[in-house]
Amino acid sequence: MWIVGIAANDLFLLLGAGLLAGAMNAVTGGGTFVSLPALTVVGLPGTVANASSSVALLPGALASAWAYRRDMRPVEGVSIRAMSLLSLAGGAVGAVLLLVTPEAAFDLIIPWLLLLATVTLAAGPRLARALARVGLRAGAGLVLFAQFLLGIYGGYFGGAVGLMMLAAWSLLTEADIVALTPLRTLMLAATNTVAVLLFVVSGNVSWVATLVVMAGAVAGGWLGAQAGRRLPAVVLRGLVLAITVGTTAIFFWRAYG
Fold first, then answer.
1. What is the pTM of this model?
2. CA–CA separation, 123 and 170 (whole Å)
3. Intervals of the chain under pLDDT 50
4. What confidence score (pLDDT) does residue 180 get?
């Protein structure tokens, strides 16, 4: 088990990162872009920081899924149960892949995962709308297969996976983002639950740092929900994109600079 002695400055850094990550996840997603770098700054190896970030942000995902439980709607005939099972299975596969990835290899892979997530944040919704305008729709089987792959990605890394899910589902249905958000929270919780259990059993979690980030994320989730009702969507999205671009650039510099 990884234990980090937290100095006062690191404590405030992790708490603040949790606050911001929780707020981002409550509004638009992308909280991993804040919690992961903060955990690496205080000295955790990349794989441990990633696992600890997943554990820290899980309570917020579970709380959101519970809050939305009466608003869940299937994506045009695709079973919610089947999507949940595939998310669970994919999350487990992704978590195992993370646990067997050498630390040096993960440090080289993570900037590219961050870049993929950044591009999805920036272009995913517009791409889905563009495909919808030309009448392109995916079948139920393809959506289920895509959900399994998204589960693997979520268990391995998870940055912007919620937005990737929305983009994939938008190829099948004309429902708007607001209508799909409850289902997204459930699939995120399913993906992360099994992954977190494997991370905990493997001892790949720094509990001191994780609990500090978790406390901030719980508070940030509530504050983010309040702010989300007041700030224009374009402002929130701009702030998230600025954070993701900056984080991606920093990780590329650390890995290849």
1. 0.81
2. 13
3. none
4. 78
